[in-house]
Each structure stands twice: as structure tokens, then as C-alpha cells.
Design goal:
By secondary structure, the chain is α/β, with parallel strands linked by helices. About 35% of the residues lie in helices and about 15% in strands. The strands form four sheets. The chain has a five-stranded parallel sheet, with helices on both faces. Helix 3 crosses helix 14 and helix 8 packs across helix 9 (about 260-270). The longest helix is centred in the C-terminal third of the chain and has 22 residues, at about 375-395. The two termini are about 30 Å apart. Bound molecules: N-acetyl-L-norvaline and phosphoric acid mono(formamide)ester (CP). Phosphoric acid mono(formamide)ester binds next to helix 4.
């Protein structure tokens, strides 16, 4: 943390302080927890001994107070941001909420009254656009959709650039302006696949979190697609017949370079909920270990598929620093077909869609009785409704 003096923005019990600290950090505000009884420095601050306090840099104090004021309390199941599985808190509760909403999807139709969702798309979408808008409508919200590349000013994203080119507006003005017109913002911004550090820092998404002044959720950002993984998880829970199914995520060929967002999130989510996760891909397609921790990597696709309960196919480009964003293989023997499915335990087939047939998966498998691609897409409405509901519950007037 910078050395411009620390200010206390919260005082309370340790567990609450932890929630407050992570909420601040998620919004790009460095924060630390201090225990008064242990800190001599502390006596000089307004808040006196006895409790745990959360400290921020003096220059962040106003932003931190505004952020904390925007949520009525520190209940763990209300959310300010949704970018990763951990944001959901108690997973059993999240799943119960998903099934409750699936049974009665208009149950919370008053919650979003006079609230506005802004969905910002830097990239194309079918499912995310429709399902998130439907979710907002289930909750009684108003919705604005902005397709940045269709009709908005071209946006500069780098600070310090002399804007004498074709970009008319800077993201640093555009974001707070967008924040003026809404209560919640969803952002879709894919990896550019040229600069790994820039993508993996989630520069665009984090700027929205930091400068919009509103709760922000990912509608697929550079390194993750949590709304998709949440829907995938609901779908698996609905179809599994054993407590801990074997879930195999398989790379498959694709003619264009695709981000790692979907496989990153899927691996992270499925290991987090404790499934038996196997990832199979040709050498060179290793994902970042922070997402695959707890999964087994098997380079032999047929071996990986043995006894699988669920097969999740997806293409992604290389994630390594040397080959970042590159296509290293277009080997069509990896296309998921009857040959691979026959060694599974009558596995269900899954894909997030959009899918290129006979590159990723054969017509027969995707059209077959074990294909879950449509129920999976349908559950996108449910995952989005849970996420928006929780964000709405965290808003104060
Ligand atoms: C995107 C991707 O692979 O990240 C979106 C998937 C939901 N897919 C394509 O661009 C084809
Ligand atoms: N699965 C998914 O996110 O699809 P879209 O890219 O169409 O939104």
C-alpha cells in the first residue's frame, strides 16, 4: 500500500472485516486489516482498541466509504462484483437459490423495480445477451444494451496515449459516464490474445470495477466466463447420478484462435465444487495452474474419456508465455465423436456454444440423446438471475 497515511473505514468483527477487505480489494482499493490490541500505531486513530479495523490509503478513503455505503450490510451472499466462483460464497446456498429460481423465476420480480442494468458488449454474443436480459426482466429491472463497436465512439483504453488517431473517447471518461445511467453493469470483453499480461490482469473489466462506481459482473472477460460455468454446474447437478462425477474437459480443434476464458472458469469451478476433474489436450495447451489446481491433466484423450460421466468440449489457444494466443494444433482426431464417447460411462456431452460442428464435435454426438447443450444454454437464465438478484440485494437506495 502507498505511503500517504492510512484511514480506517470499517470497525467490527474479524469475519466482517474480511468481507469488507475483499470487497474493497475486488474494487481495486488496497486494504488491510489491523487488530487494535496488537498495533501500537493504532492508538492515534479515531477508532479505539478492542475491534478489528479495515484500513485504506488516505487517498482511497472517499471511494472506500462510498463503496461500503452502497451495501446495507456484510451478509456473505450479497455481491458487489461477480468475476469468479469465490464471489458466490456458500455454494450450497447458491445452488438452492438457483433451483428455487428455476421453479419460480418471477419470485423476485419486485426486487429490480426502477433499477437499471447496463450490458456493455465489446464482443458478439447470443446467449449471454438474451439470457442476462431475460434474467433482468425476471427481476423487474430495466435494461440498456450498448454494443461498443456498433454506434458508440471508438474507445482508447491506454492511459498516456496522444489521441490523434481514430479513437474519439477514452475509456476513463466513458466508464464513469456509463455508471451515471444505471445501477448495475455487465461487461463482455474478450482477451485480445496479443499481450498475456494485459489479458490476465483483466485490465478492461477492472477499470469498470474501479471507475464506474457501480456493481459490475463479467459476461465473459479476458480470463473467465463465470456465468457460463455457474450454468454448467447447475446442469451437471441436475443430471448427475453419483455424488462426485468424473468430468472431462477436452480441447478440440477450431480454425480461429480462441481465449482461455471458458476453460479457465470451467476448470476452476468444477474443481472448486469437488468433482473428479480431468483435462485433456495436446501438449502445449496447458492452462494457467491457478485455474486447474485440483484437476488431473491427461494428454491421451481416449484414456481421459474412460469412465467419464460428463464430457465438456472446448477449444482454446495456447496460454503459455512463448505461444500465447497461438493455434498449435488443428488435429481433427481430437474432434469429439462416437469413438471417444464409446469409452465413457454413457457420458453426457456439454459445450457452452457457439460450436463449430465437425471441428469440435460431430453432428451425431451433439444431436444425440446425451447432449446437454440446450439445457445448458437454458440454465444461463438461471445463473444470471441468481447473480443479479444477489447484486440487487446488496444495493442501498
Ligand atoms: C468465445 C470463446 O471461446 O471465448 C465465446 C464462448 C462463449 N467463442 C467464440 O468466439 C467462438
Ligand atoms: N455461451 C455463451 O456465452 O454464448 P454467447 O457468446 O452467445 O453469449
Amino acid at each position: 500500500m502507498a505511503d500517504d497515511g492510512l484511514k480506517c473505514v470499517f470497525k467490527g468483527q474479524t469475519f466482517e472485516a474480511e468481507i469488507v477487505r475483499s470487497r474493497l480489494e475486488d474494487s481495486g482499493i488496497p486494504a488491510m486489516i489491523q487488530n487494535n490490541s496488537l498495533s501500537a500505531v493504532f492508538s492515534s486513530y479515531t477508532y479505539t482498541a478492542g475491534d478489528v479495523t479495515v484500513m485504506v490509503n488516505a487517498s482511497d478513503e472517499t471511494a472506500a466509504r462510498a463503496l461500503l455505503a452502497d451495501r446495507s450490510d456484510t451478509r456473505p451472499n450479497v455481491m458487489r462484483t461477480f468475476t469468479k466462483v469465490q464471489d458466490l460464497g456458500d455454494m450450497d446456498l447458491a445452488l438452492r437459490e438457483a433451483f428455487e429460481i428455476k421453479k419460480e423465476r418471477f419470485k423476485f420480480s419486485e426486487l429490480g423495480k426502477n433499477r437499471t442494468l447496463l450490458m456493455v458488449f465489446f464482443n458478439s454474443s447470443l446467449r449471454t445477451r438474451l439470457s442476462t436480459q431475460k434474467a433482468a426482466m425476471n427481476l423487474g429491472m430495466n435494461v440498456i444494451v450498448l454494443d461498443v463497436n456498433q454506434g458508440a465512439w471508438k474507445l482508447e483504453t491506454e492511459r498516456g496515449v496522444v489521441m490523434d488517431g481514430d479513437k474519439s473517447e477514452h475509456l476513463l471518461e466513458a466508464i464513469p459516464v456509463m455508471g451515471c445511467y444505471c445501477d448495475v453493469i455487465g461487461v463482455r470483453s474478450f482477451a485480445h490474445l496479443t499481450d498475456k499480461a494485459e489479458d490476465y490482469e483483466e485490465r478492461i473489466l477492472n477499470q469498470f470495477i474501479k471507475y464506474s462506481g457501480k456493481p459490475v459482473f463479467s459476461m465473459e472477460a479476458a480470463t473467465g466466463h463465470p456465468l457460463q460455468s455457474f450454468a454448467d454446474w447447475i446442469t451437471i447437478e441436475e443430471h448427475k447420478t453419483v455424488k462426485r462425477p468424473k468430468v472431462v474437459m477436452s480441447w478440440a480443434p477450431h480454425p480461429k484462435s480462441l481465449p482461455q476464458a471458458v476453460p479457465n472458469s470451467f476448470a476452476q469451478w468444477m474443481t472448486y465444487v469437488g468433482y473428479d476433474v480431468v483435462i485433456t489436450h495436446p501438449e502445449g495447451y496447458e492452462l494457467e495452474p491457478e485455474f486447474t489446481k485440483g484437476a488431473r491433466i491427461e494428454y491421451d484423450q481416449m484414456k481421459a474419456f474412460e469412465g467419464a460421466d460428463f464430457v465438456y468440449a472446448k477449444n482454446w489457444s495456447a496460454a503459455s508465455a512463448e505461444h500465447y494466443g497461438q493455434i498449435l494444433s488443428i488435429d481433427r482426431s481430437w474432434t469429439v465423436g462416437e469413438r471417444q464417447m464409446s469409452v465413457t460411462d454413457n457420458a453426457y456431452f456439454m459445450h457452452c456454444l457457439p460450436v463449430r460442428r465437425n471441428m469440435i464435435v460431430t453432428d451425431d454426438v451433439i444431436e444425440g440423446p446425451r447432449s446437454l447443450v440446450i439445457p445448458e444454454a437454458a440454465n444461463r437464465e438461471i445463473s444470471a438471475t441468481v447473480v443479479l438478484k444477489r447484486i440487487l440485494e446488496g444495493l442501498s437506495d
